[in-house]
């Protein structure tokens, strides 16, 4: 006879949980039904579901019902379970439409490839009784890089002189990690500012979330490089600057040169790429690298080796 949640908790986690007692799931196909208080069983291990994960963006919480924050009952440690969920969408890059999709198998593959590499989140795939490819992830003890940068209570000139060199040094290590992934024939697939974390203990950077992928025939790894370009823009600018924010800066400082549409990013057209126009002390090499990702660019990075070479030059310019 199968155990109930109460019996499992009494056996593995006595006196450790006072919430709702739900159901035991060995098949995670209907992930919308699985909620706090349920227990998921994978390969004989038991995971008490605490809640659904949420993605926070622009002050809004977006539930991710297929991602469960759990307690691994055998160890008492926190885990994140990513259940099987498929979706597709297109990303616009200029006149091109790039098909993107979620692939649990791809993420499971990368978890195996980067095992014990501290530059990436760690975990392992485990099939449930229905054959669903569940990814069991260890929680990164840290903070999103963008939030870490936001919390630096200094103006941009001070940030640029004092903090940026150290951040760029660690960012180069993270870019080398993506280059290594590409050389293994894999891509991250969803590089953005909330997918690079700073660990509390070492301050090193860790990539998370590998389940997106894309078909970009012109450059198989191109979206990863554009993602890194957007992240570099955030790092150099200590944030993004929208049309409205740029207009406010111009209203306060009439010496700012005219801002043109080609000064903004190619992919996210409301983010200023030509930062030298509002921060004239940014070195030419740094600004030229950012302009590679602008709407006005006619030359783009083909490989991570090219990107890293210019990024190393940028680091020398800001030190």
Provide a short characterization of the protein structure:
It comes from Desulfotignum phosphitoxidans DSM 13687. The protein has helices spanning 5-12, 104-113, 145-150, 156-162, 164-183, 222-237, 243-252, 284-291, 304-318, and strands at residues 24-25, 39-42, 45-57, 60-72, 78-82, 88-93, 96-102, 123-127, 133-138, 142-144, 196-199, 205-207, 212-214.
Note down, in words, how this protein is organized:
31% of the residues lie in helices and 23% in strands. The protein contains 9 helices and 13 strands. The strands form 3 sheets. The protein has a 7-stranded mixed beta sheet with strand order 1-2-3-4-5-9-8, covered by helices on one side. A 3-stranded antiparallel beta sheet has the order 6-7-13. The protein has a 3-stranded antiparallel beta sheet with strand order 10-11-12. The model has no long low-confidence stretch (mean pLDDT 93).
The fold-level CATH name of the largest domain is Transferase(Phosphotransferase), domain 1
Class inferred from helices and paired strands? alpha+beta
For the report, how would you describe the main beta sheet? 7 strands, mixed
The total count of strands amounts to 13
**What is the alpha-carbon Rg in Å?**
22 Å
Strand proportion, as a percent range, falls in: 15-25%
Number of domains: 2
Number of helices: 9
Q: Kindly state the percentage of residues in helix.
A: 25-40%
Regions with little confidence, pLDDT below 50 for 5+ residues? none
CATH homologous group name of the largest domain: Transferase(Phosphotransferase) domain 1
**Element-level helix/strand string:** HEEEEEEEHEEEHHHEEEHHHH
Q: Can you list the strand order of the major beta sheet? A: 1-2-3-4-5-9-8
- Termini Cα gap: 66 Å
Quaternary structure classification? single chain
Protein name: Serine/threonine protein kinase
Organism: Desulfotignum phosphitoxidans DSM 13687
InterPro entries: Kinase-like_dom_sf
């Amino acid at each position: 006879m199968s155990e109930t949640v109460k019996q499992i908790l009494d056996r593995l986690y006595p006196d450790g949980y006072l919430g709702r007692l739900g159901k035991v799931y060995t098949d995670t196909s209907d992930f919308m039904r699985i909620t706090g208080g349920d227990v998921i069983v994978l390969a004989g291990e038991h995971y008490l579901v605490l809640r659904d994960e949420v993605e926070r963006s622009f002050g809004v919480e977006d539930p991710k019902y297929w991602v469960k924050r759990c307690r691994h009952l055998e160890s008492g440690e926190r885990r994140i379970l990513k259940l099987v969920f498929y979706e597709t969408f297109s990303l616009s890059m200029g006149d091109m439409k790039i098909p993107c999709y979620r692939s649990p198998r791809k993420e499971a593959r990368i978890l195996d490839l980067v095992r014990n590499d501290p530059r990436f989140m760690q975990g392992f795939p485990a099939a449930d009784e229905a054959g669903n490819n569940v990814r069991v992830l260890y929680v990164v003890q840290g903070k999103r890089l963008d939030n870490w940068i936001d919390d630096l209570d200094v103006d941009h000139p001070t940030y640029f002189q004092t903090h940026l060199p150290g951040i760029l040094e660690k960012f180069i290590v993270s870019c080398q990690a993506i280059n290594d992934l590409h050389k293994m024939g894999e891509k991250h697939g969803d590089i953005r500012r909330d997918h690079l974390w700073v660990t509390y203990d070492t301050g090193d950077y860790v990539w998370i979330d590998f389940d997106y992928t894309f078909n970009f025939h012109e450059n198989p790894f191109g979206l990863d490089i554009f993602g890194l370009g957007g992240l570099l823009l955030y790092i150099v600018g200590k944030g993004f600057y929208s049309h409205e924010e740029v207009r406010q800066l111009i209203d306060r400082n009439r010496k700012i040169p005219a801002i043109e549409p080609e000064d903004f990013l190619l992919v996210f057209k409301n983010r200023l790429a030509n930062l030298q126009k509002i921060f004239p002390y940014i070195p030419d090499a740094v600004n030229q690298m950012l302009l590679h990702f602008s709407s006005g660019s006619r030359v783009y990075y083909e490989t991570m080796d090219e990107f890293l070479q210019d990024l190393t030059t940028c680091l020398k310019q800001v030190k």
